[in-house]
Amino acid sequence: MNLTSQLPSKGSHSLSSFIQDELGATAIEYGLIGALISIVAIAAMTAIGTSLKATFTTVTNAFAGGN
What we know:
mainly alpha
């Protein structure tokens, strides 16, 4: 057996196993889902934070005016 006769079979086996391997794709999909959830959470917290700040400002002004 010489080395050059073994190379094509090992190379094609590695390529086919790489194409059929879905573990990397699954990890990437979970990463994308996590990123999307993070973006939605940040957007929601930003919108709620602005509204909440206005509410606390109104309450603070009401207490300050009552003294």
